[in-house]
Amino acid sequence: MEGFMYPNEVELQWSILIVLYPYLTGLVAGAFILASLERVFRVEEVKPTYRLALLTALAFLIVAPLPLQLHLGHPERSLEMYLTPHRSSAMAMFGFVYLWYLMAVLVVEIWLDYRRDIVRLAESSRGVKGLLYRALTLGSHNISPAALRIDDRVGWIITLIGIPSAFLLHGYVGFIFGSVKANPWWSTPLMPVVFLFSAMVSGIALVLLMYMLTCAMRRVAIDMRCLDTIAKYLFYTFVIDFALEMLDLIHRIYESDESFRSLDFMVHTRLFYSQILIQIILGTLAPLAILSFTQVINFSVAARRRIYAIAGVLTLVGIFAMRWNVVIGGQLFSKSFLGYTTYKVAFVTREGLLSAVALMILPFAILYVLIKILPPWQEEHRVVAEVHGDD
């Protein structure tokens, strides 16, 4: 601790779990936006990742509220937001946004897209799997061409509704931080927009890496046209995100209010490694540079795959650093702008590093189960169609 700090400022109120929370919701929003490119905007090149993106979004959405539950200490209290709605509370209203996006958008869209496969698997599977697939049919066994056309049309409408819902899901996180007027590190109208575009960047990067990893694990060839298209959208979205962040930075420098010297000191000391080195240089400029090279230089297929993998990993690291710098960085200075504190991550505690690592692994375990139940691979769908007859 340096300088004068109020007693309630010495210990940070929001820990690494609150860093993880907007990071997970951002991955959900970005993965869904990538899936909507094929369903709504008819970008056929990204079709091999459509179902994988939906399942990825669902797996991370299931885990997204868990950091908040651990932070509460009494997770049963979260039910109060549904039993006694408080419309003036942005955090309370998130419960309804989350429930709407999970149940009315994502789950319904996945069910409509998989319904034909579920019905056929219910007819061909036996034992526990057969019972599971028969339960997933929800009693709907009509897979005639007319019924499938209705499924496709309704799914298109739900995806169209899901795009602004995804924006709302993650944009509200930036809204919560941006509306804290007492904290100059957070209080900016650009915060929701920056959070939203960084979410799109992280989600697209995650699906890109998951597609490459699953192809390698299954030992099948990567569709380079699909990979090149995803990388192109990742690059363009990243450029917009970086431009917005630089606009916010330039505005802060130009405004130079009474908090500027304190924030500038913190960037050059407490947050130098996490913001300057990891977020800006390693997690933003480096992936932008290598992705830009692929747009102007004709690399070989193997070289492009390596470049995309490196860019995707660096992007995810950079977006996590951005979340860290916003959540943790906004709590490291006092309201008097004279004192500074530090944050040390505990290891085995309710809000420690071990809990955060477990919450990061959990979505991948859920995704593994979802893939086993609902395989997203196009060639497997064709095999099912050949065995049971396609309409």
Descriptive account of the structure:
Residues 380-391 have low confidence and may be disordered. The chain has one domain (7-388): Up-down Bundle (Formate dehydrogenase/DMSO reductase fold). The protein has helices at 7-10, 16-39, 50-63, 66-72, 80-83, 90-124, 127-136, 145-178, 191-218, 224-255, 260-268, 272-296, 301-327, 353-373, 378-388. It contains 15 helices and no strands. With 391 residues, the chain is mainly alpha-helical. The relative contact order is 0.16.
Number of domains: 1
Low-pLDDT runs: 380-391
The average pLDDT score comes to 88
Would you report the number of β strands? 0
CATH homologous superfamily (4th level) name: Formate dehydrogenase/DMSO reductase domain
Task: Tell me the radius of gyration.
Answer: 22 Å
Helix content: over 70%
Strand content: under 5%
The H/E string reads HHHHHHHHHHHHHHH
Query: Which second-level CATH architecture applies?
Result: Up-down Bundle
Number of helices: 15
First-last Cα distance: 70 Å
Main β-sheet: number of strands, strand sense, barrel status? none
Classification by helices and strands:
mainly alpha
According to CATH, what is the topology?
A: Formate dehydrogenase/DMSO reductase fold
**Highest-level CATH class:** Mainly Alpha
Shape: globular
Comma- or semicolon-separated keywords:
globular; 73% helix; mainly alpha; 391 residues; 0% strand; disordered C terminus; single chain; Formate dehydrogenase/DMSO reductase fold
Q: What's the short story on this structure?
A:
With 391 residues, the chain is mostly helical. It is built from 15 helices and no strands. Helix 6 (90-124) runs antiparallel to helix 8 (145-178).
